[in-house]
Amino acid sequence: MPNVIVVRLGHRQGRDQRITTHVFLAGRALGASSGVLCGDRDESVIRGITRVSELWGGSFAVKYEENWKRYVLAKKKQGAVVVHLTMYGEKFEQKIHGLSGKDLVVLVGAGKVPREAYDLSDFNLSVSSQPHSEISALALFLDRVFAGKELNVDFNGKMKIVPNKCGKEVVRGTND
Amino acid sequence: MPNVIVVRLGHRQGRDQRITTHVFLAGRALGASSGVLCGDRDESVIRGITRVSELWGGSFAVKYEENWKRYVLAKKKQGAVVVHLTMYGEKFEQKIHGLSGKDLVVLVGAGKVPREAYDLSDFNLSVSSQPHSEISALALFLDRVFAGKELNVDFNGKMKIVPNKCGKEVVRGTND
């Protein structure tokens, strides 16, 4: 799968801790390669994701970047396509075919997103033009980019769930 | 579209306010008919969703139910299929074809979900067997149930977004 990096813009410590963590967990579970935290430096988010990856597998990790703009511009120079998810953007369904298979940087805003994020992005895309959640928007975006194949990835973790009709079955993975 | 009700189990005031709001906003934007809040009675969540529907359209509303079990059993009696989204469940992709077009009650847990929710549900389904977010899980589940058609619904709201390549364009809707 191509390299897809989820960049959380404008994270606010305290207020956004759980939502930002869910953004990264959704990214990890649905095929993204790594996460970048911008805004407030919040070690609790980074540690939380690290713990999940240690236990449940895969190589997804989050790092902090103080200067989101410099980071995104550097990625663009390296050839990544920058997609900003915003309810105001163009319909993502119409653009997704051109994005599959490419290295992507996906910008997901917390508070008000700076104007520059719209300008720097190759695509400003909306997942429905209704207000909902950056987590659900990211989920549907990744699902379309990966055409549903992200659900079949084996994370090869220390812990592994055995799908169960009416209970919980967790086994030690082969990586333990 | 069939009647799909999103039931949030075990909401904890304060701790879950934003996540629960995102659950319902995702439900609303992605085709669910209504929401039911269980756990702590939290008027701020209900008011928030009401305001969104007033402005952006549609008939989605959230009501509070003190006794989730009684509510779910009554819905079952009326013929709804009860689906509990849990990372421990069976793979949702394998069951979705049998659920499309049916009236559904979708249980989404906040804290630890009581054993009875597993037992009462017709299906315990996982959206990937990795930990992520109830918001992303609900989004992908609804998207599959409605086969992507939920993204084309016209909410006929007072406010309406015109999809834009690089900015924000909001117009007064026909319902104003």
Task: Explain briefly what this protein structure is.
Chain A is an alpha/beta fold and 176 residues long.
Topology:
The structure is a homodimer of 176-residue chains.
Chain A: E1 4-11, H1 17-29, E2 34-39, H2 43-56, E3 62-64, H3 68-77, E4 81-91, E5 104-109, H4 115-120, E6 123-126, H5 134-145, E7 159-161, E8 170-172
Parallel strand pairs in A: 1-2, 1-5, 2-3, 4-5, 4-6
Antiparallel strand pairs in A: 7-8
Helix pairs in contact in A: 1-2, 1-5
CATH class of chain A: Alpha Beta
Q: Which architecture of chain A per CATH?
A: 3-Layer(aba) Sandwich
Helicity range of the residues of chain A? Answer: 25-40%
Content of β-strand of chain A = 25-35%
- The tally of structural domains of chain A comes to 1
Radius of gyration of chain A, in Å, reads 16 Å
Runs of chain A with pLDDT <50, length 5+? none
CATH H-tier superfamily of chain A: SPOUT methyltransferase, trefoil knot domain
Q: State the end-to-end CA separation of chain A.
A: 25 Å
Assembly state: homodimer
Using the coordinates shown, work out and report the CATH topology of chain A: Alpha/beta knot
Count interface residues per chain for the largest interface.
A-B, 50 and 50 residues
Q: What structural category arises from helix and sheet content of chain A?
A: alpha/beta
| Largest beta sheet: strand ordering of chain A | 3-2-1-5-4-6
State the major sheet of chain A: 6 strands, parallel
Name the average pLDDT of chain A.
96
Query: Using DSSP, what is the number of strands of chain A?
Result: 8
Order of helices and strands of chain A: EHEHEHEEHEHEE
The count of helical stretches of chain A stands at 5
